[in-house]
């Protein structure tokens, strides 16, 4: 009888523990899925960090290129100003030469007229 009681007790315990075992197996499966999802999220986060680092590097390069362009623009402005100054000097020289040529023309015409009067 004790053997039968023992078997009955085991049977009852087994029946009672079966849902708990099933739930435990489901929990383990869920936990495993969560671990996989967490690993996937970690990988996604790592990729995002790498992309962010790449974007920061690109931004630094753009800033550096922009700085170089500003320096080039300053050099171009100086060159244009220097060219304008030189052009003004050339215009002044040309104007002076034009006045001298007009003066010399007038003198030449006057001298020719005087020479004709003398003859």
Automatic annotation (TrEMBL):
Give the span(s) annotated as Disordered. Answer: 29-57
Provide the protein name. Answer: Uncharacterized protein
Q: Which organism is it from?
A: Paenibacillus enshidis
